[in-house]
Specification:
Blueprint lengths: L2 H9 L19 H11 L13
């Protein structure tokens, strides 16, 4: 993987916005943030996330 591919992957990582920038640990999510994550990964609107999507 080239450096540009790696940089693109980092910038397109949806969950990155929910990580602490220093520790890189996942922050506690609010209910609204949780629903944003759910909607992002629930592409077919069946209200479940298939393991293939993860």
């Amino acid at each position: 993987m080239s450096e540009s591919d790696s940089a693109e992957q980092r910038s397109s990582n949806f969950m990155r916005q929910f990580r602490d920038s220093k520790t890189r640990e996942l922050k506690n999510l609010t209910a609204i943030q949780f629903m944003d994550v759910w909607k992002h990964y629930d592409k077919d609107d069946y209200s479940d996330i298939a393991d293939i999507l993860l």
